[in-house]
Design goal:
With about 375 residues, the protein is an alpha/beta fold. It has eleven helices and 14 strands. Strands 5-6-7-8-11-12-13-14 form an eight-stranded parallel beta barrel, surrounded by five helices. The two termini are about 40 Å apart. Mean pLDDT is about 90; it is low at about 1-15.
Length: about 375
């Protein structure tokens, strides 16, 4: 991967991870198992509403973010692409200065659908390769397995015959109101197609997301040509994922946290946190933030950085985008880092229980013993409605 302005690096050290950082951006760079380097902090686009996503991406690049996290089911990659096109044209940044990551959607796990999914993302983003391509979820739900579904066929829940122009939507629903489930598809077959995409130069590194430890181990053992470079999972002070983070570190897989601020106000959250509040409003975090003269958000992000965890943080507000980026001018003491362990409640807000009717659903152990499958919601995971 050409580094462009990401070269001329200085070496920094931390207790959690030895990294390099770019003087231009101040963001540490982590070396992936693929050999390519990834900024430790990325700008996320999940739940960024249509009409504001492009402006947010531009603000993030101007702030200093050099990594972007995208997904076709977010229903906004076309706006991200328009912002990138303008940034390149205006000389704000070059393609080789950015690390762009996107994800393969659940309905496109079948080997014959993977390239169609990727190409739609490349077309929307107006680029010719990805730095990282990640299997979004292990389970092929929602999916019929019969056809590739794309943003242009409908990034919303609907009957499998009622996407845009009568095509199958990205969140297909069966005749009884439940998500369609392609139980004959398995992520190992999907993984091998991703390896081929690396050989073809369409992606630089490949990874997985929302996989549990057993599933990560299975992919590690099944990889033939290219390593598992990254695992993206929910991770924040209320869900610290210590065992999984350590397992990834031992196996040279970079752990990347999504929802590093907790995001407890999402429409997907089905149960309150043990404290009755979201992490951003936690009393301990408010106290420690005051001590360092930082915001609770900055404390949470810095905590993960010092653990050696990569992260994706999202906002559409320029002041908050800048706040989330400015976490490299202080260090949390060892005692305060240890104190974060007192709020590790194991609270996962994104269970997505309606997708659990599949053998590859990753969080079955976290569902109630008497759980009965629920019908599909009217909103997609990014909040898009039909």
């Amino acid at each position: 991967l050409p580094r462009g302005k990401l070269c001329n690096m200085a070496t920094i050290h931390s207790d959690a991870l030895k990294t390099e950082k770019c003087p231009r951006t101040g963001v540490p760079l982590i070396t992936l198992a693929s050999g390519h380097k990834m900024p430790q902090v990325a700008f996320g686009t999940w739940k960024s509403s249509p009409g504001v996503t492009g402006t947010a991406v531009t603000a993030a690049i101007k702030t200093g973010f050099s990594a972007l996290d995208c997904a076709n089911d977010y229903n906004n990659e076309n706006e991200v692409g328009a912002a990138l096109e303008s940034a390149f044209k205006d000389g704000l940044v070059k393609r080789e200065d950015l690390f762009i990551q996107a994800k393969l959607w659940n309905s496109n796990h079948r080997p014959e659908h993977v390239r169609l999914d990727l190409q739609a993302t490349l077309d929307d983003l107006k680029i010719d390769y990805l730095d990282s391509f990640v299997i979004h979820w292990p389970q092929a739900v929602p999916s019929t397995g019969k056809s590739a579904t794309l943003r242009k066929t409908g990034a919303f829940p609907a009957h499998y015959t009622k996407g845009i122009d009568g095509k199958e939507p990205m969140f297909p629903i069966d005749d009884n109101g439940y998500f369609c489930s392609d139980k004959e598809s398995h992520y190992i077959e999907t993984w091998h197609v991703l390896e081929d995409l690396v050989d073809e130069g369409l992606v630089k590194s490949i990874g997985i997301s929302n996989f549990n430890k057993r599933q990560v181990d299975e992919v590690l053992k099944a990889a033939k040509k290219h390593p598992v470079s990254l695992l993206q999972n929910e991770c924040h002070p209320y869900l610290q994922q210590k065992d999984l983070v350590d397992f990834c570190r031992v196996n040279k897989v970079v752990f990347q946290a999504f929802s590093p601020l907790g995001s407890g106000d999402t429409h997907l959250a089905v149960h309150d946190s043990p404290t009755g509040t979201i992490p951003l409003k936690d009393p301990f975090l408010a106290e420690v933030a005051k001590k360092y003269g930082k915001s609770p958000a900055q404390m949470m992000l810095r905590w993960n950085v010092q653990r050696g965890v990569a992260l994706v943080c999202k906002s559409v507000t320029p002041s908050r985008i800048a706040e989330n980026f400015n976490i490299f001018d202080f260090e949390i003491s060892a005692d305060d880092m240890a104190a974060f362990g007192n709020i590790n409640y194991g609270w996962r807000h994104l269970l997505w229980r309606e997708a659990s009717d599949h053998p590859d659903y990753p969080f079955k152990d976290e569902l109630p013993h008497d759980y009965v499958l629920e019908k599909a919601p009217v909103e997609s995971s990014s909040g898009t409605k039909n």
